[in-house]
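Reply to dn_fold:

You asked what the input looked like. This is it:
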Amino acid sequence: MGTNENEWQGALSAIDLSAIEALKKLKQEHDQISERLKSMEAMKSNFADAVYVRVRADYEKRIAALDAEAAPLKQAAREQYARLRALLGRFEADHEAIKLDQQELELRHQLGEFDDKEFGKRMKAIETTVAERGQARARGQELKARFLEAFHSESELEQADAGGTNRFSVADLAAAQMRTQEVASVVGGDAPPNKTQTMSAINIPEPERAPAAPATPPAAAGGATQIFRAARLVPQNPEAGKQTYTLTLKPIDIGADAANDVRIGGPGVDPKHAKIVVSMGGFTIVDLGSKHGTRVNAEKVRERPLANEDVIQIGAARFVFREG
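and this is what came back:
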């Protein structure tokens, strides 16, 4: 297993399941009492009302106690599941990127760019990468199944408290998501920009930095203050270039035309392809009706709010959106 695969497995091993095991026991008792309460309704007429009320009150009191005991455990589990879900999202995006690399390799081979022997060598390297990534994806799905065992549904696992205490901030997800970066070409070592390359995401923490001075917040409707957090577009492959773009309050135009703030060449890029705008909800990427579309985490989108570590693909160029 390569270094990057060790990074994947290490990130999955860091998911804390201690709250899950405790929750499973509480859920089992909770379900048992709930079933007894249902059964009581069919037996109600066979017993005095005072007995029915007393037993029901005892059961409801125990359920309330179980809910109170489970609340902090559910919070901890949801935080860990947010990390796992972010990793699973990165796995899927990485898998889609590799599939595109396979298709590109096949196209270049059919165009006569290299012979059958070289094609076989490169394809074997990609297939090895796919197999290794598959192990990490399978492990991630196993962990997801364990989380679901402790909850009645995935929506319950993902939901936040009504008061908002369980809502996950972008910073929480950022800590869990993998740092996406370009790795070596499938034949090893550096390759020319026009050669097929695979993408991998590895968890490399960035060094701590002193908090940046807050940007001057613009006035919102009604005199309210809009909270603004700067962000960046970080190139991830040769087609995206080498420049990191800082996103501010000004909309960022993206496309092949030289007048764009982010200029991208190559096939599949319209002159005015997409733009990134900011609002009180954060940054949003908008496709401008392009012919080949705009993708976020390998999914074709028309308009999508951006989250930290989202992978944006326009044509063959890939960028990572990073906040802070």
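Residues 161-226 have pLDDT under 50 and may be disordered.
Hope that clears it up.
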